[in-house]
Design brief:
19% strand, single chain, alpha/beta, 43% helix, 7 helices
Length: 221
């Protein structure tokens, strides 16, 4: 059994970027932990932020449960103002050393949202620091993440190195995404991601629906 951590800038990014892969991992008996950098409280023009943050966390718990995620963690950084700073670095290194994942998913470094790009840099740098004999305040035992995959959300990847056939899990992915009802009121993310995954499947020739990733690190053993 593998342990997998999925880092999402906001609730629903995990499903958009790798929801089908999450469902496949869960179906294979792997343990999955979802970590949300913010609670997405800025994602509405009408709903007060404190109410929306709580609602989106609840939506994320329901969607994660449907996909088979074991644990959800909310770091509650301010939505739209996520920072690359010491506090966030310490929290992520500590999580990596505590949970000891074999594989992590994160947004790709050029995704078209600042919170996504900051998440990518934070998690990638934390994974490097986690493996070394440094930062006593983050736990005494270093941990090396063997495999790191970067997913696409706002900006489709121009270069990718891995395709995952999610055809058998596409409906499950869409059902999970539709549990994020607060975000589908104004933008049809479900239709957008279904179209993107269908395009990846057709053009990649690997399945009816596919998710694609940049392989940033891989376990060669």
């Amino acid at each position: 059994m593998k342990k997998i951590m999925v880092f999402a800038p906001h609730p629903d990014d995990d499903i958009l970027g790798c929801g089908g892969s999450i469902a496949k991992h869960a179906g294979q008996g792997h343990e999955i932990i979802a970590v949300y950098m913010t609670s997405g409280e800025a994602g509405s023009h009408t709903c007060p932020s404190h109410e929306l943050g709580a609602r989106r966390e609840n939506e994320a718990r329901q969607a994660s449960s449907l996909l088979g995620v074991k644990e959800t963690i909310f770091l509650r950084n301010p939505d739209g103002f996520l920072e690359y700073n010491q506090d966030n670095m310490i929290r992520i290194i500590s999580l990596l050393r505590e949970k000891r994942p074999d594989l992590i998913y994160l947004p790709h470094q050029l995704d078209g949202n600042e919170d996504h790009r900051v998440t990518s840099k934070l998690v990638l740098d934390a994974s490097r620091r986690s493996s070394g004999p440094w930062f006593q305040q983050c736990g005494s035992l270093p941990w090396e993440v063997k495999t790191i995959l970067a997913y696409e959300v706002w900006t489709p990847l121009q270069e990718f190195s891995y395709l995952e056939d999610i055809s058998s899990c596409m409906e499950q992915k869409l059902k999970a995404l539709r549990l994020h009802s607060s975000q589908l009121q104004d933008i049809q993310y479900d239709e957008a991601i279904q179209g993107l995954n269908r395009y990846r499947g057709i053009m990649g020739g690997k399945g009816q629906y596919c998710e694609c990733f940049q392989v940033l690190k891989i376990d060669r053993q």
